[in-house]
Every structure is written in structure tokens, then in C-alpha cells.
Here is the input.
Amino acid sequence: MESRARITSLFTAVLVAVVASLALAATASANTVWLCRPGQQPDPCTPGLSTTVFSPKLVPLGVTHPQAVRHPAIDCFYVYPTVSDQKTLNANRHIDPEERSIALYQAARYSQYCRVFAPVTKSSRAMG
Here is the structure.
């Protein structure tokens, strides 16, 4: 009987921990600002993938049109560098042109192979 009570207590503790973690995850998700997320518009991580190809002497050779995978099997999470041009020490979580541009330059190519997620992060910048 004592082992059954222990198992019941352990099960209850695990269940409470799972419910608590799900509640915290839901709260965190509701507070997340997304720079990029599948289905979000605008989404700078999923632009057209057409690319102009140049020779080493910078002569245009043509345009390629890579196709994105229809149903990507994986998710990619992108954490962008500090690019804020805000004039404060701590940047807010507004999506500014700098964040959109860096996502386009660095993360967009991944959208060819995976679903790209990029949360807006709190950042501090060097003043000077």
C-alpha cells in the first residue's frame, strides 16, 4: 500500500508540473512578439527567393528561381544580431526596419527548407 501511495503522489506531482509548465508556455507565447512566423503577414523571412547570378566580373548571367519545400518537415528558429538604431540603451520590442532588413538578408534563405520563426528579443546596445 505504501508504494501505491508513493506512485500516486509522484504521478500527482508530475501532473501538476506538466499543467504548470503548459500554463507558463501559453503565457509566454501570448507575450511573444514575432518578427517572423509562418502565416504572419508581413513576414520578412519568407520573401520571393529569386536571385540574380553574376560572373566573377559582375556580368549578369541570369536569374534563378529556387522553389520552397511545400510542407517543410522542420522548424528553424532565428535569433538576429543586435541591429537596433533606437536612441536608447535598451531597445523596445517594436519591429523596426533594421530588424526586417536583417531577417531578409540572413534568415530568408532558410525559408526554402524550413518554417522560420524569429522572436523579437530584448536587446541592449553600446552607446557611444
